[in-house]
Amino acid sequence: MELKENIQDAKNHMSAWWDHEIINRPIIGYTYRKFNFKSSVPYSSWDLAKNNDAIEIIYDKFIRNSTNQKWGAEMFPNFWPNYGPGIMAAVFGCEPEYKNSTVWFHHPISLDDIVPLLESAQLNSNNKWYARLLQVTQFVAERSNGQFSVGMSDIGGVLDILSSFLGPTEIIIAMRRNPGIIDTCRSIILEKLINVYDDLQNIIDNYNLGCNGWLNVWCPKRYYTIQCDFAAMLSPKYFKRFALPDIITQAEHLDYAIYHLDGPNEIPHIADLLAEPSITGIQWVPGIGQPSTESEKWFPLYNKIQDAEKNLVLDCSPFGISYLYKKLKPVGLFVRTYTLNRIIAKMYLPKFIKGWGDFFGRKPSKLGEDMMIVKNKFRLKIMNAAHSM
């Protein structure tokens, strides 16, 4: 079974990228369907969230689907146990609910009861979700045989996990009136989150598979895509006080760290993130309703990130990928795209990856916002189709 050609070359390129180096070309990721209907099978990364213990069936679907997929350049076939963003909340006792193509975590509890609840979560075989995460990771890792990466489950961010139990309004009020209780909750969550990360990655390390996660950025050493979606609701002052210290603690625990910058409301925190030496890079997501990744609107942000000598991870439509490589510094840049077939990939990929992008990948059209909206919708359609593979 060979799911990806030249996988060792891709690992070598990625190893250099993490250290802000280039071997012989910039790194890039792309994927498309081969349309081998004999191996085609309906598969979604949400299958495990919908059927929590059907790992044998879902693993088989993943393999068959990955066989029917071209994993180009530094794009890896990657199985990550997807039980929903912030599955660590389930380890603390919140039962996840799959609904409307995502997973919801909602376990309302009073401020008086939150600390005892968090403290009561034990990381042992009696904890259903902790045990499930270990078992599923073990099942997949021992079958990989180096042909695909095994990713960390999306365990989530500290304040995001807390918000599964306390609503955002209650958390922010407590930050003002009773910050000590928020600090206690953060401390408990952070300690157990790091322990769960280590327990899961130790399993993966036993099979010499490197490190990966939901972002699908392979690494030879330990990293994680740190996130705090709750930060979009925080002022810079509160971000520094209640979010940044936990982000730094996580990053310092790792060899490398990527921060998931999710939408314009997190941009006010970028200076603090870029000033932190333990954060290796930034993944930027514009968010639905915003101009697409290749829009000129975001280039001041990209320039700040690159001027700080941080790595930059972007997903975009095939229309804009060559343009991004022309406009941005190649060192530390990783742009991925999802195309429908080999012809589209050939048309829009940059010349350095044997595409025709120097011709087709010109500056995005200035015909107006309507064209940008059309491109953004096409990008989302392709990415959603790819993520459902």
Describe the structure.
The chain has helices at residues 7-18, 47-50, 55-67, 88-91, 111-120, 128-144, 158-162, 168-177, 179-205, 236-252, 270-274, 299-307, 321-327, 342-348, 357-360, 369-387, and strands spanning 27-33, 69-73, 78-79, 97-99, 102-104, 149-150, 223-227, 256-262, 281-285, 311-316, 333-338. With 389 residues, the chain is α/β, with parallel strands linked by helices. Residues 366-376 and 382-389 have low confidence and may be disordered. Strand 10, helix 13 (321-327) and strand 11 (333-338) form a beta-alpha-beta unit. The strands form three sheets. Strands 2-1-11-10-9-8-7 form a seven-stranded mixed β-sheet, sandwiched between helices. A two-stranded parallel sheet has the order 3-6. The chain contains 16 helices and eleven strands.
Spatial order of strands in the largest sheet: 2-1-11-10-9-8-7
CA gyration radius, whole angstroms: 21 Å
State the end-to-end CA separation.
18 Å
Based on Cα principal axes, name the global outline: globular
Topology:
Elements: H1 7-18, E1 27-33, H2 47-50, H3 55-67, E2 69-73, E3 78-79, H4 88-91, E4 97-99, E5 102-104, H5 111-120, H6 128-144, E6 149-150, H7 158-162, H8 168-177, H9 179-205, E7 223-227, H10 236-252, E8 256-262, H11 270-274, E9 281-285, H12 299-307, E10 311-316, H13 321-327, E11 333-338, H14 342-348, H15 357-360, H16 369-387
Helix pairs in contact: 5-9, 6-9, 8-9
